[in-house]
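Structure first, sequence second, as always.
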């Protein structure tokens, strides 16, 4: 009987200790971790129609399990491990390392390529256009040694050109028919261009176009404003849509255009 009582007392003490340990263990509740998968339907509902889903190349569990692989795959992401409690997993926070020479957001351009009035000495008459392809500027000549300067994108290596032409036609929201040479050239690289594209925001010619003589070259807008200041085109001169619209309203058919 005595032995049985001792065993019962020991069992009761063990149960009390176990309960105390469990209560102590969960006094500080673990943090709520929200899934980083923005494609989850409830997250989409929170943000309405403006939410931009993020699709990860592999499951987050694998990314957290092997942060070394993630660092190697994306050197601009630095892993910061924040230790938690004894029984919880560490939280891996990804911090983007932004390099100053690369804009973090598409759409940013160097301020020097924004429209501005500058001193400009030239033999060209007011109203004429001079395009400095080396420095990526278009000048609309004004009276008194001034010019309205715009930043432009120019022909990529192998597509540079120079000469003097006149604006023979102007068009708002122009449609686009890629030249056969461009279609063949891009197809060889695995890029298949449409035979024709109606004008609109998705059109690579942008909001306005000014056609130069009998050439295939144009001064036009772009749906990729972050390319301004670079050599990216097949010879055409591109401006931001708001800038080409401003220039379009100031330029008449017959305007002389000098490209150098």
């Amino acid at each position: 009987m005595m032995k049985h009582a001792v065993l019962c007392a020991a069992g009761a003490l063990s149960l009390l200790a176990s309960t105390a340990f469990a209560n102590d263990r969960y006094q500080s509740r673990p943090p709520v971790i929200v899934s980083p998968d923005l494609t989850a339907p409830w997250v989409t509902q929170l943000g309405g129609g403006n939410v931009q889903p993020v699709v990860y190349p592999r499951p987050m569990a694998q990314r957290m399990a092997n942060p070394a692989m993630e660092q190697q795959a994306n050197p601009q992401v630095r892993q910061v491990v924040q230790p938690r409690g004894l029984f919880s997993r560490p939280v891996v926070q990804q911090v983007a390392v932004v390099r100053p020479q690369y804009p973090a957001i598409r759409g940013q351009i160097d301020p020097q390529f924004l429209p501005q009035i500058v001193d400009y000495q030239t033999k060209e008459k007011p109203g004429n256009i001079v395009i400095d392809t080396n420095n990526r500027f278009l000048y609309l000549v004004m009276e008194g040694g001034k010019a309205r300067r715009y930043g432009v994108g120019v022909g990529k290596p192998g597509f540079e050109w120079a000469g003097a032409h006149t604006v023979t036609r102007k068009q708002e929201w122009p449609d686009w028919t890629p030249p056969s040479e461009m279609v063949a050239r891009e197809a060889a690289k695995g890029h298949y261009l449409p035979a024709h594209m109606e004008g609109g925001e998705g059109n690579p010619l942008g909001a306005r176009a000014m056609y130069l003589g009998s050439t295939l070259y144009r001064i036009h807008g772009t749906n990729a404003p972050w390319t301004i200041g670079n050599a990216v085109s097949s010879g055409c001169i591109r401006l931001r849509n708001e800038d080409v619209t401003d220039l379009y309203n100031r330029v008449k058919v017959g305007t002389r255009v000098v490209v150098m």
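Margin note: Residues 38-65, 75-81, 92-105 have pLDDT under 50 and may be disordered.
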